[in-house]
Write a structure and sequence with these properties.
Layout (H helix, E strand, L loop, with lengths): L3 H7 L6 H13 L3 H14 L4 H20 L3 H11 L7 H13 L3 H14 L1 H6 L4 E8 L3 E8 L5 E6 L13 H4 L5 E7 L11 H12 L4 E7 L1 H10 L5 E5 L35 E4 L4 H14 L4 E4 L7 H8 L2 H11 L14 H13 L3 H14 L4 H13 L3 H14 L4 H13 L3 H15 L3 H17 L1
Helix pairs in contact: 2-3, 3-4, 4-5, 5-6, 6-7, 15-16, 15-17, 16-17, 17-18, 18-19, 19-20, 19-21, 20-21
């Protein structure tokens, strides 16, 4: 009987295909996946035509690519994918990924060559692809993400997008549906939760993540609204980008933030943006909005002296909604992308915006121009029947004009339309109390307590009612 040692001596110590397969399999099962890949790689060098080794190596390599991508270990992913793509029939999916990874690493000529090969070799797959893009997560710290969307058409254009405060990464990124239809790639900076402000993502980390990738594009743009506009300026103003910033705002800023959010979270970004007279961002804002006006004109203009300021009085902070209501938001974005500028402000369309009607109506009421306030408040509420601010304006106008019964009837209908909105219930209770209708106020308070519990705002109305009853006795 020939012993194992004698057999090994007879064959000169040559390791059989079975050895590599078994050794790699045992290593993989014990969690030594990288070592298993190396063992099979050595086996493939010795037995390049062995079908079983080739199949198992391809399987391992594919799994190791996924591990490397999850760790953002781009070079390892490139090495593994390169092996998979050396065969006779590399897949369209693997080649696209290999092209993207080389882009991320700054290997732009190689990336372009691979992508050109994809377009030549798989024209039907590319044409019929349902998504029209491929996505890679470039950075993820659990709070912020940076996502790369590669258009499946040749392009030299890139746009950075930044979510506003109430958008999180479970939803499409800011402007995605419009931008994905354009011939450009997208880098989207995302947030896990609403009311978070990217303070976990430093400028240095952002630069390290995207600069090599972005350096390969001839045309670079950056776009955001509110918090997203702040972020577009903060992160990309030194990257030779054309920037469109709509109502930039950082709510937690200790000087220029909002009353509700100031000091609620630690500010890790600098108080002001670095001085940059080379950038010429386009900043659209409402000069009648005190918070936005102060931030833009005192802080941002000092940092970006060549900024192009586009003022839209009474457009409000919700500038995207204002432009959308006017029917021109898409036109503004596409003109910016295609021409590097925005269209002239068509003032004849502004009356279509509920923002404009409400804000101008508030100004008219403040200056006792009741005829205008009456008309504008009706238009604002007609456009947004359950908007609490539009409702509040309309009620205040009617009260000022001594039309209390009309105000009560209006809010009663609104409560019926939006029974889950506490703010509208509070308006109704206040109207009853203003009218000294204690029975109606008490009845509405009882209903509200059952639905919303004893919230501080409801308890405040209850105490007001008790005081009224006491004074009437």
């Amino acid at each position: 009987m020939i012993t194992h040692k004698l057999l090994k001596k007879v064959i000169g110590g040559t390791r059989t295909p079975h050895y590599y397969l078994k050794k790699a399999n045992n290593l993989w099962k014990t969690g030594n996946k990288q070592e298993a890949g190396k063992i099979l790689g050595n086996g493939l060098k010795r037995y390049p035509k062995h079908l079983k080794i080739r199949e198992q190596y391809a399987d391992y390599a594919g799994k190791l690519v996924k591990v490397a991508l999850k760790k953002q270990d781009w070079q390892t992913a490139i090495d593994r994918l390169s092996v998979l793509c050396r065969g006779k029939n590399p897949s369209c999916k693997n080649l696209i990924m290999l092209s993207m990874l080389n882009q991320i690493m700054g290997n732009h000529a190689l990336s372009a060559n691979i992508f050109d090969d994809v377009l030549r070799s798989f024209p039907n797959e590319i044409k019929e692809d349902e998504l029209g893009y491929r996505k890679l997560t470039l950075f993820d710290n659990g709070k912020s993400r940076i996502e790369f969307y590669k258009n499946l058409k040749p392009t030299k254009s890139l746009i950075f997008t930044f979510d506003s405060v109430n958008i999180c990464w479970d939803e499409p990124s800011f402007g995605f549906k419009l931008l994905q239809r354009q011939n450009m790639d997208i880098i989207a900076v995302r947030k896990k939760t609403k009311k978070s402000f990217h303070q976990d993502l430093s400028k240095d980390t952002f630069d390290q993540t995207v600069k090599d990738l972005a350096s390969g594009y001839q045309n670079k743009f950056s776009y955001g609204f509110s918090l997203g506009a702040y972020a577009a300026l903060y992160y990309t103003s030194d990257m030779d980008c054309q920037i469109l910033a709509l109502s930039p705002r950082l709510p937690i800023h200790p000087i220029y933030g909002t009353k509700e959010d100031k000091g609620k979270q630690t500010l890790y970004h600098s108080l002001s943006h670095p001085f940059n007279d080379k950038a010429s961002p386009t900043i659209i804002y409402d000069p009648t909005n005190k918070i936005d006006k102060k931030y833009v004109e005192e802080s941002l203009l000092a940092s970006y002296p060549n900024a192009q300021l586009k003022k839209m009085p009474y457009g409000g902070h919700r500038m995207t909604f204002h432009l959308l209501s006017m029917g021109v938001l898409k036109k503004y974005v596409l003109t910016f992308i295609n021409q590097g500028s925005v269209p002239a402000y068509n003032r004849s369309l502004k009356s279509q915006s509920p923002n404009y009607c409400r804000l101008l109506g508030e100004a008219c009421l403040k200056h006792h121009k009741l005829k205008w306030a009456d008309h504008l408040s009706m238009e604002a509420l007609k456009a947004e029947p359950t908007n609490k601010r539009a409702m509040k304006l309309r009620v205040n106008v009617l009260k000022k004009m001594n039309r209390h019964e009309e105000a009560i009837e209006l809010v009663e209908k609104s409560v019926h339309m939006a029974p889950k909105k506490l703010d509208i219930r509070l308006m109704l209770i206040d109207l009853y109390l203003d009218n000294k209708d204690i029975a109606a106020a008490e009845k509405e308070l009882d209903r509200s307590f059952k639905q919303f519990k004893r919230t501080p705002k409801l308890v405040k109305r209850e105490k007001r009612m008790e005081m009224l009853v006491h004074n009437m006795e």
